Amino acid sequence: MATIVGGIAVSHTPTIGFAHDAHKEQDPAWAPIFESFEPVKRWLREQQPDAIVYVYNDHVTSFFFDHYSAFALGIGDEYAVADEGGGVRDLPGIGGHAALARHIGTSLMSDEFDMSFFQDKPLDHGFFSPMSALLDRTETGWPTRVVPLQVGVLQFPIPTARRCFKLGQALRRAIESYPEDLRVVVMATGGLSHQVHGEHAGFNNVDWDHRFLDAITNDPQALAEMTHAEYAQLGGLEGAEIIMWLIMRGALSGSVKKVHSGYYLPSMTGIGTLVLENSAMTPAGDAQARHRQQMAQQLAGAEKLTGTYPFGLESSVKAYRLNKYLHAMIDEGHRRAFLADPERSFDEAGLTDEEKDLVRRLDWPGLIHYGVIFFMLEKLGAVVGTSNLHIYAAMRGETLEDFLKTRNTRVLYSVAGDVEATEEWQEGEAK
Question: Which end of the chain is more exposed for a tag (fewer CB within 10 A), N or C?
Fold first, then answer.
């Protein structure tokens, strides 16, 4: 079973990444940052975690306000470095632990946390600023894999401190019920006191920062009772992001061992570091098995439904490239390129030979079995001039004529915007 060996909390200000990239570790102005980071780095080296569940907030880089979620869990295999406006830092991407992420996602949803899930989104300084200074990187890459958990703390209303703490408790159940032997660290970022906007920009509160570092270790329940306004009053509005630390703390046992705590205020943000070793007992009896049963409850029996294939996180990851390619059919330029030269379009998208063949042959049932969600099929159908009814018939292995006999009306339709083009449909064999 997976084990949470401990928790880490650290600030994620871009100051850290800047100083690291500029090789200012020995500069008097920057050296205290790296001195405070060294015990954290050493502890990670000693623990050798198989995975880090990393709680952070994106800074309107990969997540914009067209779709801004409270909790978004990364379920992909790899995460690139984001360009935040001045170019990409000279760092490799980091691998994701997709299997652990799927398990966590299913567990949190079964515990009634309404999660969003993401892939193919690069991580900004909320991740790579501290991690570039904390993990030993070699020519082969990073020494561990990650499961990123993005918390939407920039656009109010945001999750309450108590909701974050409860999410951490649910995260503990999720990790500890994972059936494989993994050493897991839960890491949270953000803060400490700072404000970067308005006439209050530059606000800090050193006394509050130290009180918070003590309370997150010894009395997280009290912190969970605080409002966003109270956090903002004490630590600045942007400093209220420290509620994310409660997710890490909630994932640990009530009693923890403080291995390290550090603090330095170089400029705009109080930079804090904290390492807590877990003291959790192994769950007694069949608690983990019962939790896995709870996770499976909602889809229990669905496997007995003939011709029914729930689109889950595993399918989403496996068929992501092909679903993304077909989703792009909503773009006119992509549609034109596909119709003009399908093979070139396939190659530019990096489709595998199997994926190319499925699209080339318009293998509608094969696409479903591969992991493509139906709503990409109807987009492709609209582009190539195939009605939804043709697709339904093909998935059932029937002629269009036979399928239409099972309907109350003999009508053809699709999501195509050009209705006149649909007049060419023939009630013949389904493609």
Answer: N
